[in-house]
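Supplementary Methods S3. Complex input for the iron/sulfur cluster-bound model.
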Amino acid sequence: MAKTTKSLDEVTIRFAGDSGDGMQLTGTQFTNTSAIMGNDLSTLPDYPAEIRAPQGTLFGVSGFQIHFGSKEINTPGDQCDVLVAMNAAALKVNLRSLVNGGSIIVNTDGFNDKNLKLAGYEANPLNNDSLSKYQVFQVDITKLTTLALADMNLPQKIVDRTKNFFALGMMYWIYNRSIESTIEWVNDKFKSKADIAEANIRVLKAGWNFAETTEIFSVRYDVKPATLAHGKYRNITGNQATALGLVAAANKAKLDLFLGSYPITPASDILHDLSMYKQYGVKTFQAEDEIAGVTSAIGASFGGALAVTTTSGPGLALKTEAIGLAVMVELPLVIVNIQRGGPSTGLPTKTEQADLLQSMYGRNGEAPVPIVAASTPGDCFYSVFEASRIALKFMTPVLFLSDGYLGNGSEPWLIPTPESLADISPKFRTDPNGYLPYLRDEKTLAREWAIPGTPGLEHRIGGLEKEDKTGNVSYDPENHERMIRLRAEKVERIANDIPLAKVEGDEKGDLLVVGWGGTYGAIRTAVEQKRAEGKSVSHLHLHYLNPLQKNIGEILYNFKNVLVAEINMGQLIKILRAKYLVPAVGLNKIQGLPFKSSEIEKKIDEILGGK
Amino acid sequence: MSVLVEEVLSNVKATSVGNSVGAAKVTAKDFQSDQDVRWCPGCGDYSILAQTQRILPDLNIPRERMVFISGIGCSSRFPYYMETYGFHSIHGRATAIASGLKMARPDLSIWVVTGDGDGLSIGGNHMIHLMRRNVDVNVILFNNQIYGLTKGQYSPTSEKGKVTKSTPLGSIDYPFNPAALALGSSCTFVARSMDRDPKHMQAVLKRAAEHKGTSFVEMYQNCNVFNDGAFFTLTEKETRDENVLYLEHGKPLIFGKEKDKGIHLDGFTPTVVSLKDGKHSVNDLIVHNEKDSTLAFILANMTYQEKLPRPVGIFQSIERPTYDEMMSQQIETAIQKRGKGTLEKLLNSGETWTIQ
Ligand code: SF4
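Predicted complex, serialized as C-alpha cells:
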C-alpha cells in the first residue's frame, strides 16, 4: 500500500505506561534522536513517587511528554497530539491530556480483564465507541515483541522489558526518525550483555518494520529541523546543566568544586552527575543528612573551595540554620534548591515554585541571601554559574532556584566555549599586615577570604555577632545594628553588579506578565500568541529575585496592568507589591504541574478583554 | 588542592611557629590568642586548653595549618582562645564542618572541640558518621555530664536519676557511654582522659594528634558550677588509685594504691582479682593491647559498672585508610584512567550535533 508523507511544524507526543515499562527511557531516546535531527524541543517527564508501584494501577502510571518541531519550541506542549498507552491505566490517566481528534496507539495486551479492572474501566474502551473522538491504533505489542525474540530463549521477564522499544520503533517510523542513535546507545549501555543488546535492537527494528509494512499506519510525518542558532548542540536537562554549570564555575574560579549533599528527589541527579566528574577534580560527599550536606560545604568553603550543597524544599528547611551561619561568617556558598510540591514531603516528583519566600526569609534573624533563578533547562547552566560568581565576589551564600520541571525537563542546548565564560577567580588575602577578618571592600562590602595555611592570618570566625572590622565576638547594641545593616547593604549592592532587566515585547503597554523560574516557556508562548493577535502585552522574566534588578520598578510603572504568574499561591507578587506598591494581580496554579500557555492566554484575555 | 589555593600557599612563607625547619623555639604561648578566657573560675576547661597548647609545639605542624572547630556549649568557646585558624560554628555541626574542611584541604591538621550535649545529643548523628568514615580529624569531647551553657539541665551522659532543673524528679534517661559509642562507630582511635590529670592528658592528646584517622578523646571535665565533683572519685588523690584503671599498651591491667589488684577475664567478663591473696598472679591478668578491637569493647564496657575501676587511657588505636585519603585517591585514579578533564571536554561530552 502506498504510504503518504505529511509535513508538520510541531508535534506533541506522550508516552505512557507502567512505571516499570521504561517510559522515561523511551521518551529520552525519542528526545535525543529528535534533538540530533535538529528539531527544537521541550520535554516533561511525569512519573510517580513510588519506584515500582503495583503493576497496572492508576497511580503507577509513568508518562513522558515531548513537544518538538521545526519552529521555536518553549514548552512541552499544553496537550498531546499522540498518546502512546501501554496499558488501560495509562490510557485512563492520560486521555484528558490528548487533543480532540488526536491519535492513540495502544498495546492491546495491556487491556486484559485485570488491567481494565485496575484502571477502573467497566467495559473495554477499545471495544466500544468511548474513543470515537480519537483515532485509535491497536497493536498487540507484547505478542509482536515475543515473536520477534522467539528464537532467543530469553526469560519472559526480559522480553517484557523490551516492549517499550517496539513502541519506540513504531514512533520512529511514523515521525521519520533515524534509529541509529538509539542503537548506538543500546550497544554502549549493554556492552557486557550482548543478548540483551541484541534483543532491544531487534525489537526496535521490529517496531519500525511493523509500522512500515502493515496497513495500520498509512501516513508518516516529516518534522523538519528548526532554525536554531549556528553551533554545536547537545540535549540537556536542567539538572545536567546545573552540574555542568557548577564544574564550569569552579574551573573559571580556579577552585576545587566541593559538593556536600544528601539524596533527595528531584535534586539527586546533580549529585549523581557530579560524582562522575572526579577526573575534573570534583569532590562529592554524600553526607549523613541535609544538615551535614550544607555544613560540610561551609567547612570546605572555609578551606578555599567553591562549595555547594544541593537539595529540594524539605532539605532547604533543614539547612536553614547553617545558611544563617554562612551569612554570619560571610563565606561563599551555593545552595541549589530544585523545588518540588510541598509542604512537608508534599509531591516529591511534581513541580512547584513555592520555596521563594522560604529562600527569601526562611532563617532566624535578619539574614538576607541573594537568590538567582533559572528559566529553562539550559539556562540552569548560566544561572548557577552566575550564582557562583556572586557568592565568590560578595563572600555570601547564594540560593539558586530551579524546580522539578526544569530539572527533569530538557531542551537542545547550544554548547558554550570555555573562553566565552568569565573569569571569576577570587583573590585570597595573603598579606598579614593590617589584616582584620571583617575589613570590607569599599565597593562590594565583601570581606576578604583568608584560608587556613596562610601564615600570619590565623583568625577565628563563628556564629556569634561580630564586631565590625575585627570580627571579635561583640554584644554591643550599636555594633549589632551596624553589622545587620552592613550585611543587608552588601546584598543590596549586588544590584550594581548585575545587568538591568529586559522586557520581551514593548516597554510600555496595557499589560505586563511577570514571571520567574520555570514558567518562562509558557509565559513567552502565551505572550507571543497574544501579541500576534494585536494585544498590548509584554513579558518580564526575573532571573534575580534578591536583590531585584534596579530597573524593575520603572518597568512595572510603565504598564497599566501587571499580572504575576507563579506555580504557587502568590509569592513573587507579595515581594513586588511590598517593594513597588503596584496593584499587581496573580495567576496561580498549585497542581504540581507547570502552566499551560493556554491558561496564561486565558488570563491575559480576561484582563484585557477580548475573546 | 585547587590551582589557586596551591598557588597562594606556595607563595607564602611558613612561619617559624610549630615548624621544624629552622624553627625558633615554639612554646605554648604562641598558641594563645589575645582573647580573654571567659570560663567560670575553676572550670575544668582551663586545664584542657592549657594541655592542648602545651602539646601543639611538639607536633611539628606549622601553626597556620592548624584549625580548631567547635559547635555550641561552654567547651565550644575553645577556638577563640587558640592562636590558630578557628571556627565557632553552630550546635552539633562542628564534626560535619570539619569533615568538609578535611576533604577540601587534606593538608590541614583539624581539631574538633565539643561537649557531651553538642557532640552526643544534637550532634550525635554527625559524630558517629565522622567516626565510621575515619575522617582524619581529632575530636576532644569535654564530658561534664551536664548542660553548662544553658545553666544546668541533664545531658546524654548524666547518670540515671540525676536531679536537674529539667528533671526535678530525677532523669529517667540511661546515659551514653561515649567510648563504647565511638568503638561501635568503628572509630580507629578511642581514648579517655581527665582534666585533673595533666600529664596523662598530654600523652593522650599527643597520641591522638599523631594518629591518622578519626581520634576520639573523651575528656572528663569538671563543671564546678552545675555538676561539681562529678568525677572526683576518679580525679582526687584519696580515691583515684582505687577507682581508676590506667590502660597501657602491652602491660597487664593493674590498679590500686598498692598496685595490688588487677583485671582478670572470666569468660568475656572482666573481674577484679587480688594479687595479694595468693590465688591470682600477674599472669592471670589481661594484658592491654590497643590493636585488639574485641578487648577494647570489653574495656569500654567496664564504664559505669560499680564494682569495676574506670578505665582511662587509649582503648583502641588501629589503622585503616582514611576517608580524605581515599577521596583523593579516587580522584587520582579517575584522572589516570580517563585523563585530566578539561572544561572543553566536559561541555562537549555526550551526544552532540552541529547546526551550520
Ligand atoms: S558552666 Fe560549667 S562547664 Fe561551663 S564554664 Fe562554667 S564551670 Fe565550665
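The mean pLDDT of chain A is 96. The CA atoms of residues 235 and 412 of chain A lie 4 Å apart.
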